[in-house]
Amino acid sequence: xxxxxxxxxxxxxxxxxxxxxxxxxxxxxxxxxxxxxxxxxxxxxxxxxxxxxxxxxxxxxxxxxxxxxxxxxxxxxxxxxxxxxxxxxxxxxxxxxxxxxxxxxxxxxxxxxxxxxxxxxxxxxxxxxxxxxxxxxxxxxxxxxxxxxxxxxxxxxxxxxxxxxxxxxxxxxxxxxxxxxxxxxxxxxxxxxxxxxxxxxxxxxxxxxxxxxxxxxxxxxxxxxxxxxxxxxxxxxxxxxxxxxxxxxxxxxxxxxxxxxxxxxxxxxxxxxxxxxxxxxxxxxxxxxxxxxxxxxxxxxxxxxxxxxxxxxxxxxxxxxxxxxxxxxxxxxxxxxxxxxxxxxxxxxxxxxxxxxxxxxxxxxxxxxxxxxxxxxxxxxxxxxxxxxxxxxxxxxxxxxxxxxxxxxxxxxxxxxxxxxxxxxxxxxxxxxxxxxxxxxxxxxxxxxxxxxxxxxxxxxxxxxxxxxxxxxxxxxxxxxxxxxxxxxxxxxxxxxxxxxxxxxxxx
Length: 508
Known about the structure:
Strand order of the largest sheet: 3-10-9-8-7-4-5-6
Mean pLDDT: 85
Oligomer: single chain
């Protein structure tokens, strides 16, 4: 070009974009990147057409588009100039980082804190594999039966069911859940106390928003479920981690906390991730603490349907007589996670508050899915599916136990498992845990270090969490062999690092 203030424009007649568009984009880019500054005079449309060897109509149309969008202005008798004020207001964003900053405002400090919370699991792409956590036996899900129930519901759906429904959820599902938990979990509730949510995580968030004020203290298990930490962090609560032993959360330690916690979150039937069951004396002590402290208990009964040994102790909700326990249940571990359906059992006064919050947020989970699940439970299909998958998962657990026992040199030792869909395995002290995680990923298997579930990042127990529910027996055996190889590749550096950590005051 013959004007130093106008950048070089390259056009290519072979491109799918027309010449007019190429010229428009080139000038606009030059303006946004600062090559053409505010007030710079552009070549006339005729001179630009001569330089580019295109028709003047092409350059005129490109200029007209720039004028219409506010990037340039035409001054009669003077020419065409870059506008003083641009629509994008990005004329000073010369680098990619600056442009990104100008386009996207910074997130809040609360958003940064939530993003910094540890992930619930590290997953590879594709279908479930060893040793994915929190996934049931999806290969045994009765898809043909589900399709029949869906088709039947479609034929029977009424106009009223196509409208917005009750914010607490569909009445048939609430009735079915009330009957099921009374029989399966040793508690009693009415359909009026059941509140349907889009998964247990959403239920925890609603509970936190309803029961907690910003700054309230919330007791959480340590190690524990990061999703609960996230829910309470969203409500701006202060987390109070309390250690877990072989009987569950340390209730005496809760009583020694400074300040008065407003809420305690627990997984008493199958503690996540350690897998221990809270003893009956410990459950009764926790209920006494809640009564004396005028506090709530949130009981997450996330995979209580899978028991492989002794009959389960009744849930906390069944032991409570004063309405202080909020029960959280989920269909993700019994049907399939993509369903995104869970439920709460709450006192009726809290139920009304939850409904008010729901009206201001997401109205209700998909009503049609709720009705299909209601049919599944009411007609006995759900209980039969649970019996079958419980037997399948028991078989898969036994395959895991047998495969680990066959590995030599004691590099991996499975802790006792009486319930649930995952196991905790201790790893030899001389294994480098970070190297093990990388090696496992390279072998195509998933595992989570137990350290990921502690609130303090400095805690580094030599243990991993292995999910077995979604993997058939043959794949479990192969995966344990791969895991053994990964452990072998990671041995040697762990011990010296742990010794150094002890000298500096680190934990085990």
